Amino acid sequence: MKRVLLAGGSVFDVRSGEVSQADVVVEGERIAAVGRGLDADEAVDCAGSLLVPGFIDCHTHVCMTPAHEDPYGLPRSARSLSAVPVLAALLRSGVTTVRDAGIGRGPR
After folding, report:
1. Which of 69, 98, 99 is nearest to 82 (CA)?
2. Is the distance from CB of 44 to CB of 83 less than 8 angstroms?
3. How do residues 30-59 score in pLDDT, each as one tens digit?
4. Contact, 2 vs 42, CB < 8 A?
């Protein structure tokens, strides 16, 4: 499995709330190491960047999009597919975990 070094960025530590200069090694889809002077198969210069773990959005409406204001009128498969662009936008903004808050009303 290829190891990628994210070198020289500022790393946010979620436990302490501190930001410090460090390297991050990613192996596959997992963070393998955080520290200084690390090495890997491939390096990405992250100087001037802030590296943070994935964010959690606890109040998301993934199936409630402007194009589908009434998702209950759609077949179940179409409601699920309408979530794909919403989830993709969340992922691009750094959100890796969501809690879907639904569409704001009970079942019919």
Report:
1. 69
2. no
3. 899 999 999 999 999 999 999 987 888 999
4. yes
Q: How many CB atoms lie within 10 A of CB 11?
A: 20
**Contact in structure between 22 and 49 (CB atoms under 8 Å):** no
The closest of 42, 37, 3 to 23, measured between CA atoms, is 37
Tokens of 49: 């960047």
| Average pLDDT value for the chain | 84
The pair of three-digit structure tokens given for residue 31, joined into one six-digit string:
């963070």
Give the tokens for residue 58: 């606890």
Torsions phi, psi of 85, nearest 5? -65, -30
